[in-house]
Every structure is written in C-alpha cells, then in structure tokens.
Design brief:
Elements lengths: L2 H6 L1 H15 L6 H19 L14 E14 L2 E16 L2 E18 L7 E8 L5 H10 L13 H11 L8 E3 L1
Parallel strand pairs: 3-5
Antiparallel strand pairs: 1-2, 2-3, 3-4
Length: 181
C-alpha cells in the first residue's frame, strides 16, 4: 500500500483521531461535571479522615479535617463517574487565636461515584482507592493514571485554600497565623 493511498483511505481518519487526541490532551476536564462531583468527593474525604488525627485527641483544640481535591482525569460512563484526583487533607485546630495544623495527608486517589438524586450533592460515592505508602505508590499511580501520571502544577491542592476554609470555620481573621499542633 502506498503512503498516499493510506492517507486518502481509512488511515486518514486514524491520523485525524490521533491528532484530535493530541490536541485535546490528557488534562481536559469537564468543568461542569467536576463542579458537581468535587464537593461530594471532598466531603467524603473529610468524613473518612475523622478519627485519624492527633488534634482530635485534644478536645480543647476543637480540631477538624479540611480536604480538597484537584482533578487529574475525569469521565462518566454508564452512569458511573471515575475521578482521578490529587487530594490534600489537613487537620486544623485552634489554640489561643492561632490556627494550628495537627495532621496532614496528601495522596492520589481514584473515586467512583454514581448519580443519586436522593444523596447530598446528587452523587453517591461507590468506591475510593488511594495509592499505597512506600515503594508501591509509584507503580499504583502509573497503573491508575497512565503514562502521563506525574501531577502538573494545577493538580496540587493549594494549602492556602484549606487554611482559608479553616480560618472561616473557626471564625479567625483572614491573616491569623498558622502554627504547629
């Protein structure tokens, strides 16, 4: 088969499809879907962290978990949403007007959700998988996120977003310092 015949036959559509995939890039996220599932994911993360932090053992701190997620990939198929996310959960408390950070966790995860009109936010979490600690973490990320698995700058949850939410929750000024538990 000559090259010109391949390009004018079925091969041209393959080239166009591959060009389209390259132009869209792996990081294209349906922002509307993400805006729908993000609060559900973050609420589930915070609920799952409860009971796991140092601050919760010191009642005077009134510690609470604050979690954020940033999408690495997102798709919906047959009514199930698969969200590959980078997460950050930080446990904050208050001591003498200072926001204190007691515990923290940052890990890539895959969260599967389904639409459920009766659930808060209109979605229900079906499952949540996270990368293991240690040597197996890199292999897990590569197998769950593909060859372009390294997070980009937009895939990281900024700590100031969680600090801002914690300050608001504890009724602290926007510039209240952050200390260690």
């Amino acid at each position: 088969m000559s090259t010109s015949r391949w390009l004018t036959g079925g091969g041209a559509s393959v080239v166009l499809v591959l060009t389209g995939l390259w132009a869209a890039g792996p990081g294209r996220i349906d922002r509307h879907l993400w805006d729908e599932v993000r609060p559900v994911i973050e609420a589930r993360l915070a609920a799952d962290e409860r009971g796991s932090g140092y601050g919760e053992t010191v009642p005077a701190l009134r510690a609470r978990w604050f979690c954020g997620a940033e999408p690495r990939d997102l798709g919906e198929r047959d009514g199930v949403v698969r969200a590959g996310v980078t997460t950050r959960c930080t446990e904050y408390g208050v001591r003498r007007g200072t926001l204190v950070e007691c515990s923290a966790d940052e890990v890539p995860q895959v969260v599967r959700l389904e639409r459920d009109a009766a659930a808060p936010g209109g979605f229900r979490v079906l499952s949540r998988e996270e990368a293991p600690d240690g040597a197996g973490g890199g292999a897990w990320v590569a197998s769950h996120f593909g060859p372009l698995s390294e997070p980009g700058p937009g895939d990281v949850v900024p700590s100031d977003r969680l600090e801002k939410a914690a300050r608001a929750h504890f009724h602290l000024p926007a510039d209240a310092p952050v200390g260690d538990c």
